[in-house]
């Protein structure tokens, strides 16, 4: 392959698709400020296959929504610790135009004096350092900002999110890296039993074929917050998730993992 380049998301949200077509399913999203490698170009040269730096997830984006950057700029981005937006919705001035961005967007703001910024921005919303690890109380505060967000396959925002996108984004804002899919997240952190679990742990759920199909974050008092229909709070026990409104179990517990210290 003789084609290679780098890019960064300079729109609020960009759909990343399974195949190079607008009709193809959305498998994830790029949020403002997320960088990526271009690993392939479609035959019609209208789509890029990318690998997102944060989670190494791959998919196709429309060339019209791509902003290419130099390898030098890309390398600088990898070396620095940027800030992450913590407002559900905020405005950023980019190239003298106002752009709405969502929580979880990566802001080109750094304390490094060595960085030569080749783009100009203005942002006055709420943010935090991406690498700064937070405690459970802050994680809970962030998780609740997504409460009642509608379920959306491949989504990563308060306006549409899936179960693993929810856990990934909450943990990302709190300074932890999670892979994109629940089946990938299941192998991160350390396994703990339900009896030894603590708020902030991540619970995983399986189907009849023992495949991991769902994930959520433990709260106090045997509660779990997760994206199922919407981001909601339900009861968790040894059988799984109990939905009080349905008076039934909706997900079978497969295991619990711990990333952050209780």
Summarize the entry for a quick read.
By secondary structure, the protein is mostly beta strands. The protein has four helices and 22 strands.
Topology:
Elements: E1 5-8, E2 13-17, E3 26-31, E4 35-41, E5 47-52, E6 58-62, E7 67-69, H1 71-79, E8 83-85, E9 89-94, E10 97-102, E11 106-107, E12 121-123, E13 127-129, H2 136-145, E14 156-157, E15 160-161, H3 163-173, H4 182-185, E16 190-192, E17 202-206, E18 212-219, E19 223-228, E20 230-236, E21 240-243, E22 248-258
Antiparallel strand pairs: 1-4, 1-7, 2-3, 4-5, 5-6, 8-11, 8-13, 9-10, 9-12, 14-15, 16-22, 17-18, 17-22, 18-19, 19-20, 20-21, 21-22
- Could you say which structural class the secondary elements and strand pairing correspond to? mainly beta
Q: Give the strand tally.
A: 22
Question: Which architecture of the largest domain does the CATH hierarchy give at level 2?
Answer: Roll
Low-confidence stretches: none
At the fold tier of CATH, the topology name of the largest domain is: SH3 type barrels
For the record, what is the CATH homologous superfamily label of the largest domain?
SH3 Domains
CATH class of the largest domain: Mainly Beta
Spatial ordering of strands, largest sheet: 17-18-19-20-21-22
Would you list the SSEs in sequence order as H and E? EEEEEEEHEEEEEEHEEHHEEEEEEE
Helical residues, percent: 10-25%
What is the number of independent domains? 2
**Alpha-carbon distance between the two ends:** 46 Å
Using only CA atoms, what is the Rg?
19 Å
- Shape summary: globular
> Major sheet, described briefly?
6 strands, antiparallel, barrel
What's the tally of helices?
4
Beta-strand portion reads: 35-45%
- Residue-averaged pLDDT: 93
